[in-house]
Write a structure and sequence with these properties.
Layout: H1 4-19, H2 24-30, H3 35-42, H4 50-59, H5 65-83, H6 98-106, E1 109-114, H7 125-135, H8 141-154, E2 165-171, H9 172-176, H10 182-195, E3 201-206, E4 220-224, E5 232-237, E6 242-245, H11 248-264, H12 268-281
Parallel strand pairs: 1-2, 2-3
Antiparallel strand pairs: 1-4, 4-5, 5-6
């Protein structure tokens, strides 16, 4: 089975092989494997051994030790990801989000841009329930509660010995949209203020007056990991599909867009003041 990190690593190895004008057969020979194994590696279907990666990098002419170290770290992350026996594997309501939750579990940081909703890691159960009901995709109350439980369980990553570093930029419109009605929304805004006090959580609001910005196209999350050489993966969730941006160049574009949009946002202190003001006026 392919994984996001496995596909990212495999795609990089394929790029290096193509650049070196080596064939799959030649690559297989150098690591004493079959063509089938090279295909599986390049498609991210199997975990990869460090010795194989080192030999292939040498065979492909990769001389930069940092580039090799980055691939080795990707391989380690992918192996850890595949071995993880997380709670989400026993939660059928995780659905298409299961892969994202698994990635979130091994990530060290997440940068989230949300244009229309409060980010999932900062939602109250009541707000989440209202969002799920409004989507209209689930009718069974038990299914709805299962989805709410999954989202609440994800929030455990914000606490503990090694909490996730979470940086959220939220469009002002999301603060005014009365999801679930004024009482639910007021409680959600108060919860947002409380969560923003955590040392590992940073919240900024992009005010209406900021006008056009680089992230106007839609919401996304950028997941980062612990290795020295940055390895970011972008998750874009739309109405019809979940998209993983695994290409480095495209990932850099999302990261740059996030930073440019964040610079247009209010400072964290001013953001909290605005959230408090909107909460007080909610009726």
């Amino acid at each position: 089975m392919s994984t996001v990190l496995g596909r990212k690593l495999g795609g990089e190895l394929l790029r290096l092989r193509d650049a070196s004008a080596k064939t799959q057969h030649q690559a297989a020979e150098v690591i004493s494997a079959t063509n089938s194994k090279i295909v599986k590696m390049e498609r991210g279907w199997v975990p990869m051994r460090d010795p194989d990666i080192r030999v292939l990098c040498e065979f492909y002419g990769v001389e930069d030790p940092k580039a090799v170290a980055r691939l080795l770290e990707l391989a380690k992350l992918d192996r850890d990801r595949r071995k993880a026996k997380g709670w989400w594997q026993h939660a059928p309501q995780a659905g298409a989000m299961a892969e994202y939750i698994a990635m979130e579990d091994v990530a060290t940081g997440v940068r989230a841009w949300q244009q229309a909703l409060i980010p999932g890691l900062l939602q109250t159960p009541e707000y989440t329930r209202a969002v799920v009901v409004s989507e209209g995709l689930w009718q069974d109350p038990d299914e709805i509660e299962g989805i709410v439980d999954v989202r609440m369980k994800r929030q455990d990553r914000l606490s503990g010995a090694e909490p996730l570093q979470f940086y959220a930029v939220i469009g002002e419109g999301a603060l005014h949209q009365q999801v679930g009605g004024p009482e639910v929304m007021r409680a959600q805004l108060q919860h947002l203020l409380k969560m923003a006090q955590l040392p590992n959580v940073r919240v900024q609001v992009l005010p209406f007056r900021a006008g056009g910005h680089a992230c106007v196209g839609g919401s996304f999350n950028i997941l980062s990991f612990a290795e020295t050489e940055a390895v970011d993966v972008v998750h874009v969730d739309s109405i019809a599909a979940t998209v993983w941006v695994e290409n480095d160049a495209e990932g850099t574009t999302y990261s740059s867009s996030f930073e440019r949009t964040a610079r247009l946002g209010l400072a964290p202190r001013d953001s909290l003041r605005l959230i408090e003001s909107i909460s007080e006026d909610m009726h």
